[in-house]
Every structure is written in C-alpha cells, then in structure tokens.
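Question (not urgent): is this output format expected?
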Amino acid sequence: MAVRHLSGEDLAERVRAAVPESVEAPANGALWVKAPRVAEVAGFLKSDEGLDFNFLNSISAVDYIDHFQVVYHLTSLNKQHTAIVKTRLNGRDELSLPSVYHLWRGADFQEREIWDLMGIRFDGHPNLKRIMLWEGFDGHPLRKDYL
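Got this back:
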C-alpha cells in the first residue's frame, strides 16, 4: 500500500471544524496554522480516528530573517498517510510555541534542539534545556543574525 500525502487543502475544513480559528490557510501542500494553536491542532490530528497521525517524523525551524517558520511532518502508520503542518513566528525576540511533547514523546529532543540552536521556546516542555551546546552558551548559532 502506497503512502498518501494529505495536503493542507485536504485537512483545512476538518481542522477548522474541530479547532475553530486555528487555520491560517492551506498552501503549497501544507496546512498553515496560527502559532498559539499548534498543540490544539496537533492534538486533533492525532486523536481524530480518520486521521490518526500517531507518529511525529520531525520538527524543524527555518530562519527567514524577518520571521521564523516551524514545520511539523506527521505520519499515520495505521492509515498510511502523511501531512505537513507549518506555522509562522514574527520577530526575533521572545519567540515561543506550545509544546507537542505531551502528544508525541519524540518531540522531546527535537524541541530542545530548536530551542538550543534557534531560540524558539516550547511552552509546556518538561525539560527545555540545551541539548547540543553547554548551559550558559551565549545565543543560538543557527540564527542568521548570530555572530
């Protein structure tokens, strides 16, 4: 059985109905959601029987100078489909998102790595500390403005 990608368009209406005022827009195959609602949307995507996104492949962050994007790649091992969820964080200071650690334990090191290297805090993470660099290291070296 081939794995099928569910686009943002495929997911948008279901997510809008379950988590009102959370969807920014579907675009380029991904579902864009409002940053403060990421964990709620993720919880729906995992718990909905028809979607059953029970595996978090990865979380990554991209620095675009004037904003950051955080990208979640999800898979349903049972339903044999995947999805991409993205969110945008504007600015450079005091960036944060709700953690999805409570949904997928695999988010533990990935959220810590993004915090360590990009400076995006994950609220609700039980152990958000540096994972690659030492405590007390100044800054977040994967940011484009890091000197």
